[in-house]
Amino acid sequence: MLPSAVLLRSARTDPGLSTASRxxxxxxxxxxxxxxxxxxxxxxxxxxxxxxxxxxxxxGRAIARQFQRPSITQTVLxxxxxxxxxxxxxxxxxxxxxxxxxxLLSGAVFGAVLGVILAPIVASVISGLFVLADQPFEIxxxxxxxxxGQKGFVDDITLRYTKMFTLDNTFIVIPNSTIRDRDVINxxxxxxxxxxxxxxxxxxxxxxxxxRTLAERNARRVDDVISGGPDIRIGKTxxxxxxxxxxxxxxxxxxxxxxxxxxxxxxxxxxxxxxxKTNIWNDLDDADVEIAYPHTHLVFDETSGQAQVxxxxxxxxxxxxxxxxxxxxxxxxxxxxxx
Length: 339
What we know:
The protein is an alpha+beta fold. Helix content is 45%, strand content 17%. Residues 1-8 and 320-339 have low confidence and may be disordered.
């Protein structure tokens, strides 16, 4: 026997159950119509939320193939989802028997008020549109904020902000309204090969040609350094791919050499530079090359005045100054070159 038939039979045979059913019917009839309309509108909005997610999931791959940039893809999918939700909002408004014109007018007034209150956010959104249009960087690119010296990878680009993971495994959220006014270096734009420069100061007594050869050789020994090949073109200029060392300047304390080398990827620049420096340092012992450092010479003449000099030996040695007379055979004067 079907459950409904059993329920109907029970209602007929059980007066208490019949009374309860009538009470439920009366309760439902006494609920105002506006309550049912509100509940229906809420259910429509919830259904529209899940439909928007389903639509984004179904068209996501096609949109990704259409737009090569992940940031543009995410923005378009966000716009599609927002459009689907807006459609269901209008359906909910019709259930609530609201006039479409009133909804649009209320939305316009509400948007104007929010525009005044949330002006910084609106500025970030507009800046986000410019960031997406100008394409200074993309998700996955390695960038550097010049004013802070922070390097990291772009994790996400939205209309309001840009997310970046730094090399220290920290998370930075940068409003688009400020990132457009900052100097940003993009290490991953188009060609990931990056040129690095290392200054090397050697003494004037060193073999300059040997020093240049030593620097170039030790840079080529690093795995991530490009050791040779076709010239690398930047704009209309071509640069040698192999490490090259130039004489930059005849400085005060020595000859300043400039070593330039190319790195295949910009992700371990500090480690690569440290390895190049280590190779050069370890190879200095076998070469006629000496690292220069500042030397200071003190010159005293008749215009320098008098210098008080004291030479002592032991706890009871007499002090000898520039004004005292040296006594022959005095051990305090004739000790180990102190004359």
